[in-house]
Design brief:
The complex is a heterotrimer of chains A (274), B (293) and C (346). By secondary structure, chain A is mainly alpha-helical. Helix content of chain A is 73%, strand content 0%. Chain A has a single domain, classed as MetI-like fold. Chain A is globular. Chain C is of the alpha+beta class. In chain C, 24% of the residues lie in helices and 35% in strands. A six-stranded mixed beta sheet of chain C has the order 6-7-8-3-9-10, sandwiched between helices. A five-stranded antiparallel beta sheet of chain C has the order 13-12-11-14-20. Chain C has a five-stranded antiparallel beta sheet with strand order 15-19-16-17-18, with no helix packed on it. In chain C, α2 runs parallel beside α4 and α3 packs across α4. Chain C starts with a strand and ends in a 7-residue tail after the last strand. The chains are: A mainly alpha (274), B mainly alpha (293), C alpha+beta (346). Chains in contact: A-B, A-C. At the A-B interface, α1, α4, α5, α6 and α7 of A face α1, α3, α4, α5 and α7 of B. Chain C: One of its GO terms (molecular function) is ATP hydrolysis activity.
Chain lengths: 274, 293, 346
Amino acid sequence: MDHAVLILGSLFLLVPLLMVLQTTTTPDLDTIKNGPQFVIGNRIDDNFMAAMFKASGFSGENTGMRMLMNSMILGIGFAVGKIVIGMMAAYALVYFRLRFATFAFWLIFTTLLLPLEVRILPSYEIAQKLGLLNTYTGLIVPLIASATATFFFRQYFRSIPEELVEAARIDGAGPVRFFIDILVPLSQTMIAAMFIIMFVYGWNQYLWPTMVTTDEDMYTLVRGIKQLTQDLEGTSIPQYGRANMLALIAILPPVLIVIFFQSWFVKGLTESDK
Amino acid sequence: MKRAGFTTRWLPMLLLLPQLAVIIVFFYWPAAQAVQSSFYLEDPFGFGSTFVGLDNYTYLAQSTEYAKIARFTLVFTILVTFFSLALALLLAVKADKVIRGAKSYRTLLMWVYAVAPPVAGFIGLLMFNQSWGPLTELAKSFGWDFTLGVNATDTAAAMVLVSVWKQVPVNFIFFLSGLQSIPKSVREAALIDCASAIRRFWDVTFPLLAPTGFFLLIINITYALFDTFGIVDTLVKGEPGNNPMTLVYKVYVDGFRGNDLGGSSAQSVVLMVLVLALTVVQFRLVERRIHYT
Amino acid sequence: MAQVTLNNIRKVYPNGNEAVEPLSFSIADGEFVVLVGPSGCGKSTLLRMVAGLEDISEGTLSIGDSNVNHVDPAERDIAMVFQNYALYPHMTVRKNIGYGLKNRKIPAAEIEKKVQEAAKMLNLTEYLERKPSQLSGGQRQRVAMGRAVVRDPALFLFDEPLSNLDAKLRHQMRIEIKALQRRLGVTSIYVTHDQVEAMTMADRIIVLNAGRIEQIGTPAEIYHRPASTFVASFMGAPPMNLIDAQVKDGRVVIDGDTPVADAQGTGAVTMGIRPEDVEIGPTCDMPFTIDIVEELGAHRLLHGKLAGQDFTIHIGKDVAAVAGPIRISINPDAVVLFDAETGVAL
């Protein structure tokens, strides 16, 4: 009985993905006529090549390859930026006696309250003013402007026994030494968990990339989805194979990371509940 | 702060600098600007703007269209939150019970977490394709002539379904880890005190899971309000038309497409207040519930 | 090696809470001093001020000949052993022990030599490549010791280092630490709330209570001549018996007229007597009622009432006793008298 519920649940979540996968193996005409079927075709290579190396826009620059690269840059850049900035700020807040610490704390953690979506237009205008449209900086940095990672690292640092910093001080480690020799190695698991969560979050961003990138060579896979739906609508012979393959490519890297580093990911995610 | 913190003066400032710089430029500045421009009316041709006081707000308050969208957002949020939490809780309780394969189920059920909302919407389009979409067919077999993008109710149903589909995994992960952190001794005590499994769930497990539940409630409301943007945008194929939309989508449509900066900013401010209110509620609830943990 | 002097040292927290009232004492070169007191008495704060982990609000602290009030912990030539060991979890035993030396820019070959020496001294040689999580409690304790020993400091500081160990290990480590300190001859300050540790390890004990020094003395002095009722009841298990008594005509009397000991003055006093300084037998001079006999193998404890007040007697294993009335007498030479109001020894 328990297994029946779980299997049904798994099917509910997985069958749509399998259907997308199926349509990437058959000729487009089959899909246009019949939709997803219980057949595995032989078009997977063709569709993969088309998805990776053919462009659909005017410029011919938004190939799957290009978008994959942009998504990688966004995912990794976002995750790394968030972790580096967050760790530094959390370190300053937890381990130093600062006069304006409380003020900095509130300044930083108020950002947790308002998601980017509610200040999207002014953010866009500022990015425009600073000349950041269609740049990687403009794509990544404004997304970093919240303190989720800082918050996690602060929580984590506070849970590290006090005596460790005392022992290090007696052992002659200054603040920089302590950070590099003790704190960073100790935080490895936390950093890994953060990286996974932030990579997936960055990779999956849609609204901001849609606004800030208009050059096709700056498109990410997820941002490119918009164009895919328009392509499927606008043409008489929609290229389901290629489009669905691109959707799969957009899904695959974050899914693989989440599945492979499951235990870290779950630990990092549920840590926020504490 | 740690008792034995370092006393160096310049280093912490240096460490805080990048974080502060980023949030000041890309958080406080735009947030302040949103508030400011909500009091102005932008000239449609870009020739400056006029101070109009609260006009943008009174317009919103009187707009029947805005009221309609707010109502839809409310219903949408309630449905998405309820179904994704209920389904995830059911699955988590079951996965916690099975001894064999709990981890494999977790792996299977986790996948969709990593799917981006617009990609989820894209898959929704496939499932609800007018001529052969498996779900359209399914609806047809129940006598429901499902027309995504044409009938507003159908589109809304698709939005809810896809949003629930996308959100179940996160809730599942949290519920499962919450269930697994209930001490074995407490379960065993309950087993001795109470024979009925259903009673045990409602009397012991559920209250112990309550803190996780409240946390998730807020997470899910925020998700339904904001993160579903990609799903909505994809399902309506970027053409709002007669389709239902959420408040965030309206901000985007008015501001970015319609160039009504003042109106859109006023809407942003309304949303900000909404989120702040949610946060206050969250803190209140968390405070009251804290003794459970 | 060095002598340590605390001169009017005081600690006030920013919220106005005075954790340590101005106090002074000095520790001789090579001496093992134990700071003992209940939790919150200020003993850890005092130790942390000596270590340099806590600012000194007032007063001067010198280690050796130099004032170290404003010297960084790393430069004070001290080593500290923490209650939870504070081992670096991601470093091997070798790296844990050598980390302080590495920060002092000591050449790698010399570090290796010193680590080997310390490991040999502490029987850790075969564990050098392990991480702390792969060690037992006692081994971790030794690593923490090794980290202190390897630096060859002028002063060892111990902050309740044995409180995380089980009773048997604690006993063993007590002896090991004491032996090691003897061998190295390093001046040591040891903080504990466990009076047994204090008694067995110290050359001198400093009893602290509520941020003040109650008494400084050798274990024997503290035990037999406590300076206050606080010390009398804190040190010793079971603690010293404290009984309300009167001084009349140069005699201490408890109840009725039986004189217990000679004394000067007159009026109400608190009389202290250790449980082992009481004799029982049919010819003794005072009636006593045994409520409970606690059998401890090597000896027995008799809990009961003397003149209506709680009283405990320690007797040898060869003396028989059952619940009920008996007669006892008190060794007059072992009696300590305290002011009934202030609790200070008379």
